[in-house]
Amino acid sequence: MTKYRFTDKDFDTFKIDGLDARMEAIKEGPRVKLYNLGDHFSGFLTDLTGDEQFSHVAMHARRKVNPPDDTWVAFSTNKRGYKMMPHFQIGLWGDHAFCMYGVIYESPDKKNVAEKWLDDLELFREIPQEYSISLDHMKPSKPELSGLSDEDLEAGLIRLRDVKKGEFLVGKVYRPGDAELKSDEAFIKDLEKVMTELIKFY
């Protein structure tokens, strides 16, 4: 079994019907890799940021009926959780994997983050324009920066600042069959590259 990269079988996990059956498949496949990625990148991000980073693998424990549509590992400086602060995430949906940095609606820091990024919109043009943003971590939609105007970015950041449910994450999307998913080595190397790009938002 591959240790880090997501395979077609991992993506196909999200085609399995029923909470119990899908959760079983997640535990046996993607989750093992998320723990491995968590172990690798908690150290990498500690070195990169200068702050001790802890990994948090999604457990989906509150789900009672509907099976999860995605799963992930997140990294934060808090041992107990990540949702309350800006964080890095590696995860996957049925049609893509991702590596992103940003804030979700639970974070009390989101107003400050939004102001900081609004003051320096050029940051978003200094990274590869095939990178994407997400305005809602519960939905798979991640438009590419190349298709977004500065006004689009500004609107997303204003929503992050002013709307309670506002979120904003930026990073890279991987599709099944992409070269970066052909080997563990290629995937790890590319994730490290992406995180090194995203550190300017940290």
In a nutshell, what does this entry contain?
This protein has 6 helices and 6 strands, in the order αααββββαβαβα. It is an alpha+beta fold.
Provide keyphrases for this structure.
6-stranded antiparallel beta sheet; 6 strands; alpha+beta; 202 residues; globular
Main β-sheet, spatial strand arrangement: 1-2-3-4-6-5
Helical fraction: 25-40%
Distance between the termini: 34 Å
Which band does the percent of strand residues land in? 15-25%
Q: Which regions are unreliable across 5 or more consecutive residues at pLDDT < 50?
A: none
What does the overall shape look like? Answer: globular
Q: Radius of gyration from the CA trace?
A: 16 Å
N to C succession of SSEs = HHHEEEEHEHEH
Q: How many helices in DSSP terms?
A: 6
Query: Averaged pLDDT, please?
Result: 96
**How many β strands by DSSP?**
6
Q: Main beta sheet: strand number and arrangement?
A: 6 strands, antiparallel
User: Structural class from helices and strands?
Assistant: alpha+beta
